[in-house]
Structures are given as C-alpha cells and as structure tokens.
Write the structure tokens for this entry.
Amino acid sequence: MGSRRVVTAVFLAALLGAADAHAAPAVLSTRAESPDRIRIRLTESLPPLAPAAIRVSDVRAPDVPIPVLRVEQPGGGRLVLTLDGIVSPSESYRVELRQPPLAVDVRPSIFALMLSVFLASALINNFVLTRYLGLCIFFGVSKRRDTSIGMGITFTMVMVATGMLSWALNTWVLRPLHLTFLQIIVFIGVVAFVVQLLDTVLRKTDPALHKRFGIYLMLITTNCIILAVPLLNAQSATGPLQALSLAVGSGVGFALALFLMSCARERMELARVPKPFEGLPIAFALTGLFALAFMGFSGLDFFR
C-alpha cells in the first residue's frame, strides 16, 4: 500500500513537472509601433512561429483578425510581428498564439494615449468649430483680443478644475454608491462652485478683467462644453490621465477658437461690410469659414 502511494506521488510530480515545462512564458512588455508592427517581450524564447499560428485583432473589433505577414524572433524572448494593416500606439490589440497557448493584450502607451486625446479634443473634434457647443460665450467675448485671451485662460483653468473634480466624484463616490443618475446635478454643482470661487478671486485681483467678462463669466456654469467633458469622462469610464488630457485639450481648443475669432473680428471692423451683415451675421459667416478650415484636421494621426 505504501509503495503504491509512493508511485502515485512520483507520477503526479512528473505530470506537474511536464505541465510546468510546457507552460507559456510570462509577458514582460508589449508595444504597438506605427505603421504596422507589434513588439512583444517574453520571459523566455519561443520555438519558431509561423504567421498562420498567430492571430491579431483590434480590441474594438475582436471578430476581425489582422493578417500577420512576417514573424521575427531576434532572441531573448523578443517577438516582432509585421501586420497587413495599420496599427496605432494609442489603440489596444490582442495577440493569440496557438502553440504554446498564449494570449497577450497590447495596451496603448500612456504618452500616445494622452497626446491623441489632447489633439482630438483641441483640433480634430474642437467643441466650438466641429460640434458647435459653447457658442454663447464664443460670440460674446470674441470681439476684442485681450478679452478673448483672458477668457480662454480662465475657461481652461475652470475646465481642468471641474473636469478632474467631477472625475474624482464620479469615480470614488457616484459609481461605488450607484448614484450615477445624479451626475448632471453634481457636475453642475461642481462647475458653479469653481466659477463662483473664480469670480470672487477675479473681482479682488483684477477688477478690470472681471468687468470685461461681465455676465459671460457666470454663464460658464451652464456652458455646454464645461458640462460635456465630465459627461464624456463618466460615459467612457476613463482614467485620470485621459480625463486630464480631455479637459486640457478642450480648454485649449476653446481658447484657440476664441483667439482666432477675435483676431478676425478686429480685422472686420476695418473692412467694408454690407449693412445687413454687420454684427452677428458676419460673425457667423467667419465661424463657418473657421469650421471649414478645421475640417482639414479630420483623420489626423500624429503617430503615422
């Protein structure tokens, strides 16, 4: 009876040792490189792999594989895949090996993700010139260059403060307590608090700038853009760095649109404008021209 137990133990140990010998190596690092490469580093080298033994897909479309053209194995556990398609460092991919069975998630780099979100919110999807939000303040304070610069800086500061505070409240309070139905009310309260604080500070430190802003400073509370950013962050369940990039990019994009519009409107005061087009009509026409110009940023990819 004792000999049987010894034989059984030895047999199980042999099976476990064989399973460990064929266990898939661990993943050390992954990186997607434009235009068509994915680099993977493992704890140990793999046997020679054929392109047909590897399946690559975009996380957004897992059922549509990206064909693998070439597999390079320089040694040291490194694996370089050349794909028949364009990859982006700001996107996520999944690599699956048949033998040994291994699934690798290629995450976007933090720098690439933050830069892509910043460029998208500031240029490609500018809230004013492509989504036509925040037009009340846009037309109200873009008559003078100095006022537009001050409002652009103020708006960016409010955007960053409210965006991060709203993200923190939504992530650590509303979602854990299942109170997401209160998001709009909470976000408006955060914006109102920050704007009221800024109004008090400007009134004490720079009364002239505060007077030039007028009612438009308080209208930031109900600005579509100032509410759109926290709602987008909440809907996408973004991380803190991505939320910060979206807030900064949106503020910079609004400030850029304000500055360009103020420069154009100051020049228009010296031009001969037909009487029916004076004031807001010509301002709307200028905004349309700027929107057409910003359409040129569509499809921009910094990493290609």
